[in-house]
Specification:
The protein folds into three domains: 36 residues, no CATH class; 103 residues, no CATH class; 79 residues. The longest helix is centred in the C-terminal third of the chain and has 17 residues. Helix 4 packs antiparallel against helix 7 and helix 8 packs antiparallel against helix 9. It is mainly alpha-helical. The protein is built from 13 helices and four strands. A two-stranded antiparallel ribbon has the order 1-2. A two-stranded antiparallel sheet has the order 3-4.
């Protein structure tokens, strides 16, 4: 009874532009839930204010008529419905860290950051705190690159960061804050710690494809497939526990994958080894 009334109640919620709602009852459920004590006496319809049709429209068949409402026109500037050209531009805030270099964050992005003690803190305080704590996890950019290039050490680093209070969700919020949605989380850490430019995943994957001459054509085909998933989904697709799902997605069966790529150890070594190409430093 309660669930059925809730379903009906959803339709009765009011908002601008909503004149009516329709319930399709294919199994005559309403007959089983008729309850005068629950529903109360039916209300008398409000008197017509004139100017509209009180019965079903002969054209659209709806009450009230909806066919006479003009369609909104696209904005002449942005050609969108509704207009989006009046949306205020993103406002970037410059945060100067102790290395005397500036990091930029978007003041329009709504995020909630927390200190290790559970106290809510602001964007700038979180960024300064993270910058100050990162040297405890890696001494320089080269070490960060090495840690991130191997699934096991990458997972260990993320676990240690989470235990310190920098959870995956907090780091994802930071990625949005610095406009790194299309970049790897590696680039977010590198940006905060060493003021490095953010590299889109698509660009990083493209560089890796060029450098994979150490692999035979069948291995390259599989690794290029993995890179495509990485671009679409993120670095999580490079975790070792994603190897089997990726093989099944590509070859439909592990036996078919082994026929193409070799034994499981060789496949695993290939999957892990190519990630060094993905994260190696590119000479400018």
């Amino acid at each position: 009874m309660v669930e059925f009334k809730q379903i009906v109640g959803r339709g009765t919620r009011l908002f601008d532009g909503k004149d009516y709602f329709t319930i399709f009852d294919f199994v005559n459920a309403h007959k089983h839930f008729q309850d005068p004590e629950w529903d109360g006496e039916p209300l008398e319809p409000e008197p017509s204010t004139g100017g509209g049709k009180s019965k079903d429209c002969n054209v659209c068949g709806e009450t009230p008529c909806v066919c006479e409402k003009p369609e909104p026109n696209p904005c002449p500037e942005c050609d969108n419905i509704p207009c989006v050209c009046e949306t205020p531009p993103r406002q970037m805030i410059k945060v100067k860290l102790s290395d005397n270099k500036v990091r930029e964050i978007d003041s329009m992005v709504k995020t909630s950051f927390w200190s290790p003690s559970g106290k809510p803190i602001g964007h700038q305080e979180f960024l300064n705190q993270l910058y100050g704590d990162l040297p405890a996890f890696f001494k320089d950019e080269e070490e960060l690159r090495k840690l991130w290039s191997l699934p096991d050490t990458r997972k260990k680093l993320l676990t240690e960061l989470s235990e310190k209070g920098y959870t995956n969700s907090q780091l994802e919020d930071l990625r949005n804050l610095i406009h790194g949605e299309d970049s790897d989380l590696f680039d977010v850490l590198s940006y905060v710690a060493y003021h490095k430019d953010l590299v889109p995943r698509l660009e990083r994957a493209g560089r890796a494809k060029i450098q994979m001459n150490d692999y035979n054509p069948k291995q390259q085909e599989f690794l290029n497939f993995v890179l495509d998933q990485y671009v679409k989904e993120g670095f999580e697709e490079l975790d070792i526990d994603k190897l089997s799902p990726l093989l099944l997605l590509k070859y439909n069966a592990i036996s078919d994958a082994k026929r193409e790529l070799g034994d499981i150890k060789s496949i695993r070594d290939t999957f892990i080894g190519f990630q060094q190409h993905l994260y190696q430093e590119i000479a400018v």
